[in-house]
User: Fold this.
Amino acid sequence: MNEELFEKTPISQAVAKMVIPSILSMLLIIIYNMADIFFVGQTGDANQVAAISLTTPVFLLFIAIGNIFGIGGSSAISRLIGQGDKGKASRIGSFCFYGSIVFGFIMFAVFLFGMNGILRIIGVNEKTIDFARIYLTCVAVGAPFVILSVAFSNIVRSEGAPKEAMVGMMIGTITNIILDPIMILAMDMGVAGAAWATVIGNVVGSIYYIHYLVGKKTLLSIKIQDAKINRPDIVGLFAIGIPASLNNVLMSLSNVLLNNVLNGYAGGEIYIAAMGVAMRAGIFLILIQLGFALGIQPLVGYNYGAQNMERLKKIVQFSFMCTAILGTIFTFVYVLAANPIVKAFIADQAVIEHGVKMLYALIISGPVVGILFVITFALQAMGEVGSSCLLNVSRQGFVFIPLLYIFNATIGLDGVIYSQAIADYISLFMAFGMFVLVIKKATKQTTHSNVACTD
Assistant:
């Protein structure tokens, strides 16, 4: 437990120590996301690439459940440590550990018995259904490990151990990347190879986190007797975790709806494959910004718990500046190199042509989307359930989905591919207003509390 980092280290250094490992972890996720579709793309089969794109929203459901425990647990743990209640923080860690495993087995059962319905929902056609079924069946086997790995990459970071959180993700991702070309190409397993490489990578990552959690460097517990926590703590954890996971659920839903809309055009599988490639290429910018926002969350939560609002505001302001600079730089790089980036994924000329256009549309919000993420994760760290929930459901929910259908009906395909960027700007405007109000309220409460203590 690194209290010096949370309380006294200069802002820029504290942010760097938390954010750099988090960003590196996200870089590994980027490579992992790109690896599957890249190596499947080397088969030259656009239908297999489309199948991976179609199944991505379903895989995001696993990540969503992992985030219920990971982000909800991380927020609670960092605030409790700031308040000095390390015992309760330890017990919440144990609850999240066993909760992740139980929900993993539930998801496995859901996929096992509900596969046909899932395939209909995600919009497969006769060309992609068999590939999608194979991928989802394989990945479902690894659901407990995927959820556990996602959850504890966040929870370990909450006690000031970002390097350990990064190592767990790194081990799993490197395993996946090594296995991808072997299983997809050398063993000629196609999408099944991509799925099994993903499962094995998450198994390896989970084993690392378990090894860390039974060691002496952590205050967290995985003793089953410690998993019993009271109802208010459970409610508080889920009150933050569920809204946070809604981002992934809505990402999943929005991708399903987007794929269904694209499938409605002639040659829909080409548009789906192109959007899949564009989103995989553009995910670099998104996940770098997301990694930054995730990295500062424990700092915000700790200082909020310790009622150090001045340090909290400086952390957030510094993060705004950094994410804006990073976003602008990466957007400029994408504008210059969109064509070769998309070509690196697949050789199909029709997919490349549409993929480049879609990538341009996706990165328009690049300079500001990081600020949106910082605000969202800061509000989660502060335990602001309503505000963080509203932001989580806006970017890819009640803002994006109506825009998708309105633009599809009025503008057509061009409108569809620009829907996400426009939704990002609308959500950012909402986020600023909410954050200003929350900060004013929290600062006023802290001032009154300090005055009362003085009296």
Observations:
- Confidence is low (pLDDT under 50) at residues 451-455.
- The radius of gyration is 21 Å.
- The chain is about 85% helix and 0% strand.
